[in-house]
Design a protein that fits this description.
Helix content is about 55%, strand content about 15%. It is α/β, with parallel strands linked by helices.
Length: about 120
Amino acid sequence: MNGFTFDAGGLIALDRNSRTVIALIERASQRNMRITVPTTALAQAIRNPAKQFRLVRLIRQIDTDLRPLDGPDATAVGRLLASTGTSDIADAHVAICANRAGQCVVTSDPDDLRRIAPDLRVVTA
């Protein structure tokens, strides 16, 4: 495993001080693993950056990669949604980013992600 990709639920769990999520981040740091945050997931989770200090700290860490929904990813997301008959752009973007990075997804709703990417490795936050 190369690290963790966070979906919105994982980011919200961090914001709520989830011991599980904090331990995963510490483990990633100790093992020099990368953390990926798709910007679509960030948009779903961030509401008041001044009060969401854990979330803001995560996205500012040097070992965190923010992944925008650029043209190639938007095309990949659209194709994935079409092939799975689903419609959640953020979940599809998370799946694409996690697969590309070879990472496990930190999520609060693994069933949603498994509908889009059944082989995706997930950790429930």
